[in-house]
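Dear Dr. V.,

Thank you for agreeing to look over these. As mentioned in my earlier message, I'm a first-year student in the group and I'm still getting used to reading structure tokens, so any feedback on how I've presented them would be very welcome. I ran two proteins. I've put each sequence directly above its structure. The first is here:
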Amino acid sequence: MNMKTTEQTASANRKKDILSTLWIFLSVNYILCDVLSNMESAVLKGLIEGNIAGIEMNQGFLLAAGISLEIPFIMIVLSKVLGFKANKITNITAGILMTLYQVGSFFMGTAPTLHYIFFSVIEILCNLIIVFYALKWNESKN
């Protein structure tokens, strides 16, 4: 393997590492926001009653929530193992999807709490960073 190929491989691996790390950061933020939300008295009451902020906590909702949370988890792995083109497309798609999901969450149930807004801003920014980073990724410059 020549020096140029070695440098390109190292650069591509660094980009994969950065994307994977951003997905880890994002996943932790999603989890911590949910943990803090579960400390609110209204949410605790809603968990017992099966309805939080006007949203019924039924099997369908919980499945949809689980799927939406699985996206950043699987992106931790996919960002490391996919080749350039699939990696770029998957990161852009997942980043846009999760941004839309997070923005859309503001229009569900009651008005968001301060901690939810704080975490949402971080989550939206991180998703946009992932999208822009993946958009900038050029295979020839790996």
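The second protein is here, in the same arrangement:
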Amino acid sequence: MPPRGHHSDVVRVVRGETGRVRMTLELILRFDYGCDIPWVSRLPDGTWRAIAGPDMVVLHTPVKLRGKNLTTVADFEVSAGETIPFVLTYGPSHWPPPRPIDPIASLRATEEHWNKWAARANCVGEWEDALLRSLMVLKALTFAPTGGIVAAPTTSLPEQLGGPRNWDYRFCWLRDATLTLLALLNAGYLDEARAWRDWLLRAAAGSPAQIQTMYGLGGERLLREWEIDWLPGYAESRPVRIGNAAHEQLQLDVFGEVMDALHQARHGGIARDSFEWPFQKALVAHLEQIWAQPDEGIWEVRGGAQHFTFSKVMAWVAFDRAVKSVEAFGLDGPVDRWRTIQRRIHADVCERGFDRERGCFVQAYGSKQLDASLLLVPSTGFLPPSDPRVRGTIVAIERELMRDGFVMRYDTSATDDGLSPGEGAFIACSFWLADAYVLLGRLAEARALFERLLTIRNDVGLLAEQYDPRERRQVGNFPQAFSHVALVNTAHNLARATKPVHQRSR
């Protein structure tokens, strides 16, 4: 898929190695999620063009094509030493047909492009290949014109085969901001980190009361969720969803993520934008009014709002980073008031989010359930890793949320998230446990868990959102940016002098 301008190309090259092979091509084009059958015609230069509404696809190939039952087909032979290309190109239907590209030259140019980009990576050591592959995934999921990084390029790949946990992940989540920024900065990709920071500022800009959990690649805000009833879904997993209704939820943790990401960007040497700090002050001013409200939490539950413990921790992070920004960078702000609110939130979490009988933090105030997001508590700086409440929480998660050596987000059979129970292990959560081990000094266990997680990648090093340890297969949207961000950061926590868990908790 060569990078170029406004058009998108998929290039296939069939090369004969030995003998002579008979081949068949079948191309079935359907726009609007399989709904619209295009009008296919042959242009004077021999190019085949398919048009429906705003969409156009052209196919360049020396092979003779023909139409058959609303499909495009061809029969051809390839001999030793012979190369036959196929270039499928998309463009808006009101534009002239996209110009043809040289498929062999584009292959070389694509390889050169990625090799040049990869050469900039600051990731030497025993896991260099895994780190580089994950960084390339993040780059490939980036929309270059805006710097937005999509969570995954897919929709409705199920978290449980045959189940309803099928979501559209083709958007950019604010909660990914800090960990993504650190992954890029620590690997030496300052330009990409700056572009991500700039996207974050533009997307979230406006009234703090209207901040969303996610946005489109360009910062789009209307992400209406609807279902496609004419598609069966992957492995008969219905419904197939387009859009994501979670963009309308209140998720308090995003306030902490935005504040932390911008704070880390300053520490990383990214120049401040003129409206950045005024916007941040407005953000915490709004959070001051709403932090005590229940929300839908980091996992975007659809079973009703609760006082999720991790949401309150991240509200604390927002005020903590506001105070630290003033102290470290000489910015202005009502520091005394922020410190007062910060202490109030901290006391509230320790009083209402901690189960004294079990000696651990719980998923929500008054709940007995655990939540893997609590593994992030020490890395945020909320409490030191030596605190017995932190240690007790990690032990409880090891005991109650581990399935076949992987960490579940929470117990879906005991937590009302608005859906039927059952899902895979959220891959990032197991990396978070390895990070917690690093903070506790349990380095051998951290390394063993990390290396086990590397084994579940597919043959080209890609990770989905979740892993089903019983079926021994990946599930959920794929490839998942958050999983690869977690891999990069855990590798740095294990092997580098610059450790993301220390950068956040300092």
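From my reading of the second output: The radius of gyration is 25 Å. The first helix runs from residue 31 to 34. Does that match how you would interpret it?

Kind regards,
E.
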